[in-house]
Design brief:
The protein is of the alpha/beta class. It contains eleven helices and seven strands. A seven-stranded mixed beta sheet has the order 3-2-1-4-5-7-6, sandwiched between helices. Strand 4, helix 8 (126-133) and strand 5 (137-147) form a beta-alpha-beta unit. Helix 1 (2-12) runs antiparallel to helix 6. The longest helix has 14 residues, at 78-91. The chain is globular and about 45 Å long. The relative contact order is 0.15. The structure holds S-adenosyl-L-homocysteine. S-adenosyl-L-homocysteine is lined by residues 52-55, 57, 74-77, 80, 101-103, 121-123, 132.
């Protein structure tokens, strides 16, 4: 997977050259920090969606590390999904790849509220992540999102938006310290009730006018 990432990076604009040089720790290990939390929640045998997966982080790494997860990788950009389809083929993986905006995909009846787990990394500000990812989770499922040093304060600041979308923050855990990752957090949001049908709003609106 890392070899393919190197050879396809320029054409698919998967990540900066600087980031590419620290792929193993910065991306692969970072993606794996989600796994103990997903297992602890007892959701590791379920359906998982990675919203804004880019070059497959964290979803592709998790699909390889935990084959019992049934994983769908969603990204709006064709270049990214074309790369992921190639990786899937070359590694013989059983992962779904969907080129779509999350705002549209989350309205598909087959996808809405049908995942046990949603994961999200580097998609954008916290309220955007909540609005794009929570509609995919079934009640009783959870969102596991990789966040930076502001994770505790942003989770507290957006408790209103979280509740509006049917979620409740259950933990904000610092992760990856032993792997040398600094200020990496995972925010876990349990889906406690159904997301109102008006969310996510139309494509582009969640980023332009974030919920509070
Ligand atoms: N999760 C990856 C990529 C982060 S970059 C990583 O951590 O490396 C953000 C990615 O989200 C980009 O690939 C972009 O195409 C995608 N994206 C942004 N807005 C989106 C949306 N509304 N729906 C689906 N994908 C989106």
């Amino acid at each position: 997977m890392v070899e393919l990432l190197h050879s396809c990076n320029t054409s698919a604009s998967l990540m900066s050259e600087a980031a590419l040089s620290d792929v193993l720790r910065g991306h692969v290990l970072d993606s794996l920090t989600l796994l103990p939390l997903i297992r602890r929640a007892g959701l590791h045998e379920g359906r998982m969606v990675d919203v804004g997966t880019g070059g497959g982080f964290p979803g592709l790494v998790l699909a390889i590390a935990e084959p019992s997860l049934r994983v769908l990788l969603v990204d709006a950009t064709r270049k990214k999904t074309a790369y992921l389809e190639r990786v899937r083929e070359e590694l013989g993986l059983e992962v779904g790849v969907l080129q779509a905006r999350a705002e549209d995909a989350a309205r598909e009846p087959a996808l809405r509220e049908s995942f046990d787990v949603a994961v999200c990394r580097a998609l954008g500000p916290w309220p955007l992540v909540l609005e794009l990812a929570l509609p995919f989770c079934r009640t009783g499922g959870a969102l596991f999102s990789q966040r930076g040093s502001d994770a505790p304060s942003e989770a507290a600041a957006h408790a209103g938006a979280t509740a509006l979308l049917g979620g409740r923050v259950v933990e904000v855990e610092q992760v990856g310290v032993q792997a040398g990752l600094e200020n990496h957090h995972v925010t876990v949001v349990e889906k406690v009730e159904s997301t109102p049908v008006r969310y996510p709003r139309k494509a582009g609106i969640p980023a332009k006018r974030p919920l509070i």
